[in-house]
Design a protein that fits this description.
The structure holds 2 protein chains of 2 kinds. In chain A, helix 1 runs antiparallel to helix 2 and helix 2 packs antiparallel against helix 4. The radius of gyration of chain A is 15 Å and the shape is globular. Chain A has one domain: Histidine kinase-like ATPase, C-terminal domain (Heat Shock Protein 90, 2-Layer Sandwich). In chain A, about 35% of the residues lie in helices and about 30% in strands. Chain A is of the alpha+beta class. By secondary structure, chain B is of the alpha/beta class. In chain B, helix 1 packs parallel to helix 2. The chains are: A alpha+beta, B alpha/beta. The interface between A and B is medium-sized, with 33 and 26 residues.
Chain lengths: ~140, ~110
Amino acid sequence: MKSALRIACSRIHLQQVRDFVRNYLSNRQLPEVAINQVVLAVDEVVANFIIHANGEDENQFLDLEIDLSERELNVQIADNGDTIYLPEAHQNPDLRDYIRQGRKGGMGMTLVNRLMDKVEFFTRGNHTVCHLSKHLA
Amino acid sequence: MKVTAQPTADTLTLLLDGELDASSAIVLDTELAKPDILDYRKVLVDCAKLSYISSAGLGVFISHLQRFQDANVKLVFFNMQEKVFNVFEILGLDALMTIVPTATEAEAA
């Protein structure tokens, strides 16, 4: 059974997003590490939409849908803002270089790509949608 | 997210309590950016009550690591929950940072 959540584009709502995913996945006999990995992937995408696509404009909002059936997890995050946001995946960042540079960002999408089986960003009209999927053993 | 600092002679222990994300990372960043933190020989990070970390939280540690190394301040994590350690592992940060199981090992590191 699907579950849905709408949030305004403020990073203060990230906690609500994580609680939404955790609550959905609880009582499904999943290891805590596996649940945390899904929570993290969704949190990273939502944070990117809030900060980079919408500039933390609380008048904009995101719609989340999560569905787990037959151990196949599907999450859709739809940005209702008009900025098309299609991030590039940094598959293998040089973390030693990040440390030397004192760099704070640039790891989020790497995490998402390593945590999920499939990560897709696509456009629907003027909006961007992210679809995440993963087989949960 | 709550950060409690416990200074002793040459060691500063930071107790992290809560979830470290893009919203709360500023709290930790402010603590690590304090100039007098470089007066300590070691900064021990007690992660027992750190229940979540995102890339924003990891980024705070990464952004200060070189500054700490240049000042010969050792940054050591301990008491890390498995799900939090897993996030460090996924990025390979467990090989670049000092993470030990217990407070005793952190003090000896």
